[in-house]
Write the structure tokens for this entry.
Amino acid sequence: MRRLRTARIWGLLVVCAVAAQAHTVQTPAGNSAGCKTEEFQAAHLDGTAVKFNIILPGDYATSARRFPVFYLLHGYGGHYSNWCEKTQIVDYAKPYEEIIVMPEGENGWYVNNYTNPQMQWENYVIEDLIPYVDAHYRTIASRGGRAIAGLSMGGYGAVFLGLKHHEMFAAVASLSSVVGSADLKRWDKPLTKNKQTIIGNPGVRQTLLDSFGPVNNPARKDEDPFLLIRKLTPENCPQLYLAIGWGDSLLGENREFVALLAQLKMPYRYTEVPGKHEWRVWDEQVQRVLALQAPVLGAQRQRD
């Protein structure tokens, strides 16, 4: 089992390196025309100006309604613009009456950075971004009107944020997630033992150590989905959806997490699809996420 976990960890590092260069994979021609880019100063990122893309429902300008919000996170090596540039998210969003927000997360793993306390990525999403969106757009500013999802690093971020702040999100979706990012058994041993460049990408190793800190960092316990889910009940757990490609080296830990969900009788759906750690999978699965979350959020399809 130990050898299997070690092999899986190395696979995760390879995946992160691939995700950082995911634009080399065949991707759909994105339709960014419907994506509006906005910038604001994030107090929990030391006042740094950060950008996010936002897609508004078709009748936003002609109605006085409030709309649910779907937060969509990018992966390692990506940026806020990825979803609009690499998928057809604008077209996929048209049948739904909801606001879609795609924030910048850099390579911060969506946790409060251990090495640099001024880079509090968790607090930025929860205490800066969401309040800003609620204050500047007609949102349904409650748990029942809010969902979160992401791919790879962003998949971990969605599960982490969605479970830790379960009172804020009605639904959580994880695509090809590095769901074991904070798990010491998966990350720390090979990373701390090998001080040399790992698979030619020392940046992955360094961002993990910078973000999560040393093995004795107590904050890791509150950043580990495998532990966070045990604090919830089926009644207060958000709706969960996880998807991953058969050829993805993160498959093992996603199966482990799903097995835990089943053991705890949490509300979830899980699917494995053809493909690897690639935009083809994410472009397909984000459509499934929209369809699954719409009835939960009340983002019903518009009638023709």
User: Anything to note?
Assistant: Residues 2-297 form a domain with the Rossmann fold fold (CATH 3.40.50.1820). The two ends are 54 Å apart (CA to CA).
